[in-house]
């Protein structure tokens, strides 16, 4: 019996959907046809389960699925690296690698992102996928790519997607007053990042950071976020006061209304 408790169903679905996109690998071999057909059958059952999770029990022998998923991983990696494949196939493969949090996925994505001879859009997609892994290995790869002028805006965006405290620390260290850095900080929403944002705002050097950190604090929400923004309602600068008011208004909690 396959249930949500066995792991992210969405990830498994992504792997199985990849069978259709990766058919160009070995489309003439019987083994690939078998794997694709089985993938489609399982996919239909999983989709039915997702539509009616409380009413359908899916009986799948995991020993039949797992070997095929391992084969798929090899295929996904090959397509992600292979410049001979169509761009849409590579994009799909990179997205699937981004759903994984393992060392192998991060290594492959980092390798593609660093390859200056590869297509720029593919490299950007690899950077984006690194953010979606949320792994420590991916974070190290993104940190090493921060100084790449061609990819920097997308690396900043990927750090926001990573959305972990260590990613936030990297973003704040990379803060240079640019819109790309600001928009990345604005997208942070992990509650564990709030103390880091509070500390950064206490630094008088980071005055411009307020305009991007406040929306992030509003996205995080909660009593502590409201307390932080409430303090800025007494700020002497009207622009800061207005930003604090607007951010408190974005928090759908009674305490935020009371503060206003």
Brief description of this entry?
With 260 residues, the chain is mainly α.
Give a written overview of the molecule.
The chain contains 15 helices and no strands. With 260 residues, the chain is mainly α. Helix 4 packs parallel to helix 6, helix 5 (103-114) packs antiparallel against helix 6 and helix 8 (152-162) runs antiparallel to helix 9. The longest helix has 22 residues, at 30-51. Residues 1-11, 19-37 and 55-67 have low confidence and may be disordered.
Features:
0% strand, mainly alpha, elongated
Overall 3D geometry? elongated
Class based on secondary structure composition and strand pairing = mainly alpha
> Please, what is the oligomeric state?
single chain
Biggest sheet details: none
Number of helical segments with 4 or more residues: 15
Q: Helix and strand string, N-terminal first?
A: HHHHHHHHHHHHHHH
* β-strand number: 0
Amino- and carboxy-terminal Cα gap: 51 Å
Give me the secondary-structure topology.
Blueprint: H1 9-21, H2 30-51, H3 62-81, H4 87-98, H5 103-114, H6 120-133, H7 136-145, H8 152-162, H9 165-173, H10 179-186, H11 194-201, H12 210-220, H13 223-231, H14 238-249, H15 254-259
């Amino acid at each position: 019996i396959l249930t949500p408790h066995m792991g992210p169903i969405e990830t498994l679905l992504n792997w199985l959907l990849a069978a259709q996109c990766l058919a160009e690998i070995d489309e003439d071999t019987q083994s690939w046809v078998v794997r694709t057909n089985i993938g489609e059958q399982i996919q239909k059952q999983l989709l039915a389960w997702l539509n009616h999770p409380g009413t359908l029990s899916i009986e799948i022998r995991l020993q039949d699925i797992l070997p095929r998923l391992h084969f798929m991983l090899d295929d996904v990696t090959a397509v992600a690296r292979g410049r001979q494949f169509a761009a849409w196939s590579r994009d799909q493969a990179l997205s699937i690698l981004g759903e994984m949090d393992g060392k192998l996925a991060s290594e492959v994505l980092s390798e593609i992102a660093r390859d200056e001879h590869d297509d720029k859009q593919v490299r950007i997609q690899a950077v984006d996928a690194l953010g979606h892994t949320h792994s420590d290995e991916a974070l190290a790869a993104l940190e090493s790519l921060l100084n790449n002028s061609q990819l920097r805006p997308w690396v900043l965006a990927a750090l926001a997607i990573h959305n972990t405290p260590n990613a936030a620390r990297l973003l704040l260290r990379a803060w240079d007053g640019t819109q790309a850095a600001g928009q990345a900080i604005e997208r942070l929403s992990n509650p564990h990042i709030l103390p880091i944002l509070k500390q950064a705002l206490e630094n008088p050097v980071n005055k411009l950071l307020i305009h991007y950190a406040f929306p992030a604090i509003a996205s995080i929400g909660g009593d502590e976020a409201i307390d932080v923004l409430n303090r800025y309602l007494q700020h002497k600068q009207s622009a800061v006061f207005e930003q604090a008011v607007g951010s408190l208004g974005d928090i759908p909690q009674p305490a935020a209304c009371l503060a206003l």
